[in-house]
Design a protein that fits this description.
alpha/beta, 2 domains, five-stranded parallel beta sheet
């Protein structure tokens, strides 16, 4: 057998992580139809997927709205365990925050479920060949993220105080008010006051909105 023939027969393992049973089976069947793809396993959530990460799958197809975690967290776990592994997000979520979060976590592709290709297996093979599958509806978010940062006078750097920025960065990392208070040696009451001030200055009403707006303005970084 020639080297070219051997390479043409190379197989790649695929892990499918999707909580919807019908969609999970559809992905599994699509992968199994391709001679160069081998279904490593299927999982309905992050806990079920964890054992497969140690097997270093070549590709992981993953939803973001999993019942026991955010799919972006699983992508980070995959890349930490196996940096060479690739991840393709297949989800209903088309908002900018989730798109950028997934790409920064290490996703190579981002496909919306309402715009899925007829054959997911083919999309996997194209990705392995160097073509990142990205739904057109979310591509602009990635382009925006790659644009140069806004000029200092328009960035909002002076909008929040240094302490408020510190609190908001911890909020973005998922810490509770009590945990933030312990980490930066403040009373819980003071932390709440800072959060209220942040909401007022950013004109938002929730933690997720505050994190999103601050990220858009370049005030905080995600996954630091």
């Amino acid at each position: 057998m020639s080297m070219a023939e051997a390479e043409s027969l190379q197989t790649f393992t695929v892990l499918v992580v999707e909580d919807d049973v019908a969609i999970r089976q559809y992905f599994a069947n699509s992968v199994s139809r391709h001679k160069q793809l081998r279904l490593l396993g299927v999982a309905g959530g992050c806990r079920e997927a964890q054992p497969f990460l140690a097997m270093n799958p070549d590709v992981m197809l993953v939803d973001l709205g999993l019942p026991d975690c955010n799919g972006a967290e699983l992508i980070r776990s995959l890349k930490a365990a196996s940096p060479q592994s690739e991840a393709i997000v297949i989800t209903i979520f088309a908002d900018e925050f989730r798109v950028i979060e997934a790409i920064r976590a290490g996703a190579t592709g981002y496909i919306l479920k309402d715009a899925m290709p007829d054959d997911i297996g083919t999309a996997v093979m194209e990705m392995l060949a160097g073509i990142s599958p990205i739904s057109p509806a979310v591509a602009r978010y990635i382009i925006n993220a790659l644009r140069p940062d806004p000029s200092p006078e328009n960035s909002g750097d002076n909008l929040l105080s240094p302490r408020e920025l510190e609190v908001l960065q911890l909020v973005a990392r998922g810490y509770s008010r009590e945990e933030i208070a312990r980490l930066i040696d403040l009373s819980c009451h003071t932390v709440v006051a800072h959060i209220r001030s942040i909401y007022k200055k950013l004109q938002v009403h929730s933690r997720s909105e505050a994190v999103y707006e601050a990220y858009q303005m370049g005030l905080i970084k995600l996954n630091d």
